[in-house]
Amino acid sequence: MQPLAGPDLPHTQPRPMHWLVTAAALAAVVAAASFVQPPDATATTSGDAGTGRQSAAAPDPAKATFPVDCGPHRLDVVTKASGDLDGDGTAETVAVVRCHSEAGTPPSGIYVLAQPADAKAAPRIVATLLAPARKLSVEDFALRRGVISATLLGYSTTDVPRCCPDVRTAVKWQWKGGKFVQSELPATSSTERA
């Protein structure tokens, strides 16, 4: 290894003061970054600025009653996501539910919940995006910028074993014209029959 040319300069030797200045600068950058948010970021506050109106928290699916008959089994909320889906300034919650099972994958339902004006009241279902009666399962569920997306798993015939869905369809739902509109995403290798 070749030695460095020239004398050791004072500014090249780290001292405690250098570390303090570096730590303070890093703290300032982190603090500034906490104020920068993506354009679609939302937050729940205690009230809407300037209106005096209280913002409601996103509906809790654990407090909702879903139109799913699970017999002696409990209903599981598999996943959920919240956001302002219809542009009214209040958060809705989208919940994927299915009956609990120790084996297999029972069909799923996807429901949109809204919180009534009375914060103590149970959330109400305002839309059914996927009814369990369609006998489909859900994976890759997401909510981004008001668009709900999921991959629906199903069966091409009754001869296909219920353990192994052979049809995959990527779909999305978006609020348009006063209702949720479903559309299929372009076919890819993951949306064609296996």
Describe this structure in words.
It comes from Streptomyces celluloflavus. This protein has 194 residues and is mainly β. The protein contains one helix and eight strands, in the order H-E-E-E-E-E-E-E-E. A four-stranded antiparallel β-sheet has the order 1-2-3-4, with no helix packed on it. The chain is globular.
Features of this protein?
mainly beta; four-stranded antiparallel sheet; 1 helix; 32% strand; globular; disordered C terminus
List the helices and strands and how they pair.
Layout: H1 16-33, E1 75-83, E2 92-99, E3 108-114, E4 124-130, E5 137-144, E6 147-154, E7 167-176, E8 179-184
Antiparallel strand pairs: 1-2, 2-3, 3-4, 5-6, 6-7, 7-8
Biased composition (Low complexity): 40-52
Organism: Streptomyces celluloflavus
Protein name: Secreted protein
- Helix segment count? 1
What would you call the shape? globular
Give a short account of the largest sheet: 4 strands, antiparallel
What order do the SSEs take from the amino end to the carboxyl end, as H and E?
A: HEEEEEEEE
Helix/strand-derived category reads: mainly beta
**Portion in strands:** 25-35%
For the terminal residues, how far apart are their CA atoms? 59 Å
Q: Could you tell me the number of beta strands?
A: 8
Helix content: under 10%
* Neighbour order of strands in the largest sheet: 1-2-3-4
Radius of gyration: 25 Å
Q: Which ranges are low-confidence, i.e. pLDDT below 50, for 5 or more consecutive residues?
A: 31-54, 188-194
Mean pLDDT: 78
